[in-house]
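Severity: low
Component: inverse-folding endpoint
Summary: output formatting inconsistent between runs
Steps to reproduce: submit the following structure tokens with default settings.
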């Protein structure tokens, strides 16, 4: 039963991503992943898009694994995330699931800035660009998706 539940969550996530990528609208609202009892395990989804050129795709993933992934795993209310890449727009989409908006927004901006600095350092190293350069994967969009 748990395997079926996990599969349904993954399929829901894929459907959500397709709808987000097709819609490309900041005002789009989607239901979170419902469990069999009709309750939601996600209160809010942080939605980010970053510019990721084809030649930088692996560097982006390496930087995510070395910075955001371990840091997020330690955050109160973090439920998981999906990273997707669109070859047509050369953008990465990040869908970060939180158990509450309060948990997400309670994270001090200074902590987020430190993780972002680490992310950019790893990305520059992976792409063999000087450390004084700008973020190789700049933010294109940030928003949140809420259940109805």
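Observed output (run 2 of 3):
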């Amino acid at each position: 039963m748990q395997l079926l539940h996990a599969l349904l969550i993954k399929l829901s996530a894929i459907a959500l991503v397709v709808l987000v990528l097709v819609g490309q609208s900041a005002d789009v609202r989607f239901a979170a992943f419902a469990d069999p009892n009709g309750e939601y395990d996600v209160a809010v989804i942080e939605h980010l898009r970053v510019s990721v050129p084809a030649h930088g795709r692996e560097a982006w993933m390496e930087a995510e694994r070395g910075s955001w992934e371990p840091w997020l795993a330690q955050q109160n209310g973090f439920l998981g995330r999906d990273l997707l890449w669109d070859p047509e727009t050369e953008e990465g989409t990040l869908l970060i699931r939180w158990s509450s908006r309060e948990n997400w927004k309670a994270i001090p901006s200074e902590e987020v800035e430190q993780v972002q600095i680490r992310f950019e350092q790893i990305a520059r190293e992976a792409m063999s660009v000087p450390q004084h350069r700008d973020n190789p994967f700049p933010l294109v969009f940030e928003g949140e998706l809420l259940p109805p």
